Predict the 3D structure of the following.
Amino acid sequence: MTIVEAICKSLTDINAPASYEDIYNHIIARKYYEFGAEDPLSVVRVKLRVHADNANIKSAINKRKYFSSVSGKGKYELFVLLATPLEPAEKTKISTKKKVKIKPSITFRDKAKSFFSIRRPEVHKIALIECFWMLLGAFLPILTDSLMRVILLNSGFLQAFNENVKGGEVFLLTSALITPFYFLLYRYVNSDIDYKKENKLPYFGLILPLTLLSSLAGLFAFSYYRIGLIIKDQYSNSPATSLFDFEFGGWAWLIYFVSLIIWYYSSYMNHLGTGEYKKIRKEQFEKLRTTYEQVRGAQ
């Protein structure tokens, strides 16, 4: 079996977009191919890109195409297996002077998998557990106050909960949710060059503007709400009170939701190394257990 055949078989087994590290680990685990190179990971990545239909490699124009790159860059680039291999341009008699775009056979399901399986699902699990407990702790005062209003004031729970969200305190939660991103950014900026090469921040161009907008929106909303309470209490007859009649309903939820996305991104990136380590440790444990059972069965 050749390296390309081993990669094709591995992608068939995985049945989802996978990085070259995932494919290499699968090949080793299933013993599809024995590598003699000093850097087998690079060999797998080169083969994937050379035989990918949408990789921009001029020297690979005459190579048969088995794969397609669907998302990511570098070590986080994901590949899928084409439904039918594509012959080189020379064999199919397609003029090289004209740019011919060949769409890979990628279904909506493949795109969805590539979005939700970027990097490691183990890390998503860790981030989701943390997210649950963080949300429970963050909303506990609001939930408690809403329940007290139901008991003491005979108010509806949803109405009480919504009134609490409109309050200025909710924007303190958005500031707390955004803080981990600034810590992540500080640690990344002050890290060495090797760390930056191995741990790039994906979607940074999207997350950073969202972070700045959410921070400014939260600060403005909190200040607006608090100043409005003071003006209405001390200057109730002033025309200026009308300037503070706006209630943050849907906007409060939107700001909070964006802040939650930023928090999840930061938590995920911080735990990425932990997830990688756990996967390696699990694979080593499974391999050791299989070897032990084989030796025990031979006795």
Remarks:
- The first strand starts at residue 65 and ends at 71.
- The longest helix spans residues 121-153.
- Residues 188 and 200 are 9 Å apart (CA to CA).
- The beta strands are 65-71, 78-86.
